[in-house]
Design goal:
Blueprint lengths: L9 H7 L6 E4 L3 E5 L7 E7 L6 H7 L1 H17 L7 E4 L15 E5 L9
Antiparallel strand pairs: 1-2, 2-3, 3-5, 4-5
Length: 119
């Protein structure tokens, strides 16, 4: 069921502490950790503690938690000192967009030039 931990979800296991991650920030509603395959010098994932398969379903079910994710993305950028030079927040939705873990999450990318349009 949406919102509840899923036993086969990698990110739910990170939230529960079952799988280790390099945590950079935590709140009551979010966890932020370094991506294991970084695409930029700063590449941090911000996830909700509740399970929803993507950002759209999270927004529909729990818009305040999606707002918390986005707010934390800004805090991560400030902590990583990319807030003044520029950073990108990306939500991939669906396999065709590159989503590989179906637990809503935001990528915070920075620390290098980020071209547009993205590849």
């Amino acid at each position: 069921m949406a919102g509840e931990p899923q036993p086969d979800c990698l990110f739910c296991k990170i939230v529960s502490g079952e799988i280790p991650a390099t945590i950079v920030r935590e709140t009551d509603t979010t966890v932020a950790f370094r991506d294991i395959n970084p695409q930029a010098p700063t590449h941090v994932l911000v996830i909700p503690r509740v399970h929803h398969p993507d950002a759209a379903s999270l927004a529909a079910a729990e818009p305040q938690i999606l707002a918390d994710v986005l707010c934390e993305a800004g805090h991560v950028a400030a902590d990583e000192k990319v807030d003044e030079t520029g950073y990108r927040v990306v939500f991939n939705t669906g396999a065709g967009a590159g989503q590989t873990v179906f637990h809503a999450h935001a990528h915070v990318l920075g620390g290098r030039g980020l071209q547009w349009p993205p590849g």
